[in-house]
Design brief:
The complex is a heterodimer. By secondary structure, chain A is of the alpha+beta class. In chain A, the strands form two sheets. A five-stranded mixed sheet of chain A has the order 2-1-5-3-4. In chain A, strands 7-6-10-8-9 form a five-stranded mixed sheet. Chain A is 33% helix and 16% strand. In chain A, strand 3 and strand 4 form a beta hairpin. By secondary structure, chain B is α+β, with helices and mostly antiparallel strands. In chain B, 28% of the residues lie in helices and 28% in strands. Chain B is built from five helices and six strands, in the order αββββααββαα. Chain B has a six-stranded antiparallel sheet with strand order 1-2-3-4-6-5. Chain B is globular and about 45 Å long. Classes of the chains: A alpha+beta, B alpha+beta. At the A-B interface, helix 5 and strand 7 of A face strand 5 of B.
Chain lengths: 266, 190
């Protein structure tokens, strides 16, 4: 399993500088709020790192709207909080040389786009979303035989490891989920596919090994699923991945914390 | 019991045929995968229900009934190899019901079970075809439900497993299944 821990640490520590600014239309009163700067982990989710952002801006909006749910937008695209932060950044910036760090994100309280974003009224919604992704990933990798036999406290280690940004706590349990079940392969590879610039996610069954027993590489996977894309480039964690990389290796080393590979294709 | 996509389509077609005969409103829709262009079938039903406007805490049956616009999608889940139900409910002004309200609409005999474990029962998730928010009954127990109902991969059954599953979970999602589905001429399923 995931034996190259340098890579795991490197990806875990990936951070993005973000500049949050309240939408101009929503500023209430004469004083304009200062922008709010934050370093956020690529692997985390916005609702888990935005308490301070909300606290900073909430006093600058109409008192009647302060109870409303905060949501984020980049260039008129509402940001889906259920995608990892790094995925959102790669989706909307990788193909655009104009975008620089810090990432400029607009904060809203009003007009929640409920036809596009999931409600996130409390931390439980993030936890439930995250844990059900992990469960699904384990279903794909091991027919759910690892996750479902873990104890409640082991599930909690995974969640609190993410919540508190504790690598060792998270990986002490996650390594069990990254163990290939028979021989050296997972049954299927959990992958979420995206096209650069769109928040539509697609999923399909991905095998790690071909019928004749060879490793399936990223290049082969993309050719199979995007037959009409010429010279596709595939990014994850902001890195353009060489096409000869085996997908089994990628799954063990480059999955996000929900145990899915999130691949952005351009 | 897990089912294959081909079985799912067979069961869905049977359900739709009976629905047509009693004018129950189920349709089969097609989704085209944007990656490789393949088509996937799924069941859709849209209806208006009169529902109690109660909250999760207050359980008074005196609150007025209001019309709720409902849309149900039953699709095949590739990861779990089982059926998967997504649904949305709106007020007539187009505003989506809150998750709390959806929990409160669970049939009274199951409500306490759902409330005790609500974040593992029904939550809001992205629809796998449209990437838009839908409510969803968590799919991981669906294969288990099918097994509890006596279906196993080895047998042939006189009943449509999809229908048995759907009528089992329907009280959770406010869906009514007409009794005639249960005594229609049986087809053999494999």
């Amino acid at each position: 399993m995931a034996n190259d821990t340098d890579i795991l640490h490197y990806l875990w520590n990936g951070k993005l500088a973000v500049c949050f600014q309240l939408d101009e239309q929503e500023i209430h009163g004469i004083q304009n709020p200062e922008p709010f700067y934050l370093m956020v982990p690529r692997m985390s989710y916005f609702p888990l790192v935005c308490d301070k952002v909300k606290k900073h801006f909430v006093k600058h909006v109409d008192p009647e709207k302060q109870e409303m749910e905060m949501w984020l937008e980049f260039k008129n695209i509402p940001l889906k909080w259920n995608y990892p932060i790094g995925v959102l950044y790669d989706l909307f910036t990788i193909d655009n040389k104009q975008v620089d760090l810090p990432w400029q994100i607009t904060v809203h309280f009003d007009n929640f786009p409920e036809d596009q974003l999931l409600r996130c009224s409390c931390r439980e919604s993030v936890e439930s979303n995250f844990m059900s992704s992990m469960k699904e990933a384990d279903m794909l990798k091991h027919r759910s035989q690892v996750f479902s036999t873990m104890q409640r406290h082991q599930h909690n280690q995974l969640w609190t490891g993410l919540l508190n940004d504790k690598f060792d706590q998270f990986w002490s349990e996650n390594k069990k989920l990254m163990e290939p079940s028979d021989g050296s392969y997972f049954k299927h590879i959990p992958v979420h596919f995206y096209r650069s610039g769109s928040s539509v996610m697609t999923q399909t069954l991905v095998k790690p090994v071909s019928d004749d027993g060879n490793n399936i590489t990223l290049g082969e996977l993309i050719k199979l699923n995007y037959p009409s894309v010429e010279n596709p480039k595939v990014f994850t964690h902001g890195i353009c991945i060489p096409h000869e990389t085996p997908v089994q290796w990628m799954s063990e080393h480059m999955s996000y914390l929900d145990n899915f590979l999130h691949l952005v294709v351009i | 019991m897990s089912i294959t996509y081909q079985q799912f389509v067979e069961y869905a077609t049977d359900l739709k045929n009976h629905s047509d005969s009693i004018d129950d409103g189920w349709n089969i829709c097609q989704y085209q995968c944007p990656m490789n262009g393949s088509f996937v079938n799924y069941l859709v039903k849209k209806e208006i229900q009169k529902r109690n406007n109660s909250s999760l805490k207050s359980d008074d049956s005196n609150s007025p009934n209001i019309p709720i616009v409902c849309e149900y999608h039953i699709l095949y889940n590739l990861s779990y190899s089982c059926p998967d139900v997504f649904f949305n409910m709106w007020y007539t002004d187009g505003k989506l019901l809150s998750l709390e309200h959806v929990w409160s609409l669970v049939h009274s005999f199951l409500k306490q079970n759902v409330i005790n474990d609500k974040w593992n029962a029904i939550t809001q998730e992205m629809h796998p075809f449209f990437s838009t928010p839908f409510f969803r009954l968590h799919p991981c127990k669906n294969t288990h439900v099918l097994e509890m109902l006596g279906f196993s991969s080895k047998n042939n059954y006189e009943f449509n497993p999809l229908l048995s599953w759907l009528s089992t979970i329907s009280p959770l999602i406010g869906l009514e299944i007409d009794l005639s589905y249960g005594n229609k001429d049986s087809t053999k399923f494999s």
